[in-house]
TrEMBL record:
Originating species: Mucilaginibacter pedocola
Protein name stated in the entry: 2-dehydropantoate 2-reductase
Domain Ketopantoate reductase N-terminal, residue spans: 5-111
Cellular component GO terms held in the UniProt record: cytoplasm
Cross-referenced InterPro entries: 6-PGluconate_DH-like_C_sf, 6PGD_dom2, KPA_reductase, KPR-Related, KPR_N, NAD(P)-bd_dom_sf
Pathways involved: Cofactor biosynthesis; (R)-pantothenate biosynthesis; (R)-pantoate from 3-methyl-2-oxobutanoate: step 2/2
Molecular function GO terms recorded: 2-dehydropantoate 2-reductase activity
Organism ancestry: Bacteria, Pseudomonadati, Bacteroidota, Sphingobacteriia, Sphingobacteriales
Membrane-spanning segments: none
Broad class of enzyme this protein falls into: oxidoreductase
Length: 306
């Protein structure tokens, strides 16, 4: 039986997912993470795909206060810096339903673990989405986004992937999710620090050898911290992932640059700055100087632009 899918976060990714689900005949509802106690409403959203196809859907938009005994699947697609508040709101609803964190970054699950969520999943987002107008998005999936359990003692529920998956926004089961989490976090450390500082789109790495050389140094620093954290990664695999995203998202701007331009907080705290924090806990802060400094520059630029 199909379950209602509550997508927390009505941003570019949340809306893209909701449009894809609606076009596949699935019951998807957007839940705003930043506002509460607002009336329900309908939003008409258009999604422009890479092949020129267009998807459109009228989406129900709610706030937490209008969710009465909700049951189904909860997908957290809001910015990771909001996770403390989202975990608290979901905790107040006392739900026992699966919660899927559709976010990239390191240790983003901590607020949910602290609130005792028993059925928690992480999804590594392998897609980009960008507003072209208030009601229109440019969406580019790079590959199927892997989903895995946070607690290894939890049995994987394959129905979750089945419910979320569409041909436009694909998902796949992943039994070793934390390898994928680290791999994508490292790639995001590159995109979310280099691109905003250069004021350039995601395609710079497949176009410019010098940009790729800088990326390589960040990757090597982060791989060392991953290795000391028990995660073994392959340099070429990460480089290839970065280049494939750079090609697929050529012309699109990374979320951190979009956030800075719109005077919004960024997620750099769960990327470069979290790598630096983990490095400090391991006594290796001198091994991530470039990664850390770029993260601090982004944080400063964001602060000055608020």
């Amino acid at each position: 039986m199909a379950k209602r899918i509550y997508i927390i976060g009505a941003g570019a990714i949340g809306k893209a997912l909701a449009v894809c689900l609606a076009n596949a005949g699935k019951d998807a509802v957007l839940v705003r993470s930043s506002l509460d106690h607002q009336p329900d409403r309908l939003e008409s959203i258009r999604l422009n795909m890479a092949d020129g196809a267009t998807l459109q859907a009228d989406l129900a938009v709610k706030t937490f206060s209008s969710l009465s005994e909700p049951d189904g699947i909860f997908v957290v697609a809001s910015k990771s810096f909001a996770n403390d508040g989202v975990a608290e709101k979901l905790g107040e609803l006392a739900i026992n339903a699966p919660v899927v964190l559709l976010q990239n970054g390191l240790n983003i699950e901590r607020p949910f673990l602290s609130n005792g969520f028993p059925n928690l999943y992480r999804c590594v987002l392998l897609a980009t989405s960008q507003f072209e107008k208030a009601d229109e998005l440019r969406f580019r999936p790079v590959a199927a986004s892997p989903v895995g359990v946070v607690n290894r003692d939890t049995a994987f529920n394959d129905l979750i992937v089945e419910q979320l998956h569409t041909n436009w926004f694909p998902f796949v089961r992943e039994d070793h999710i934390y390898k994928m989490v680290w791999q994508k976090a490292i790639v995001n450390c590159v995109f979310n620090s280099v691109c905003p500082l250069l004021e350039i789109d995601n395609g710079v790495f497949h176009r410019e050898a010098k940009a790729m050389k800088i990326a390589g140094r960040i990757i090597e620093e982060c791989m060392l911290i991953a290795d000391r954290s028990g995660i073994s990664l392959q340099l070429e695999e990460i480089r290839n992932t970065l280049l494939s995203i750079s090609c697929a998202a050529d012309g699109q701007f990374i979320s951190t640059l979009q956030d800075i331009r719109h005077h919004r907080p960024t997620e750099i705290g769960t990327l470069n700055l979290e790598v630096a924090a983990i490095a400090r806990s391991l006594g290796l802060e001198n091994k991530v100087i470039i990664t850390s400094m770029l993260g601090e520059l982004i944080a400063l630029r964001s602060q000055l632009n608020q």
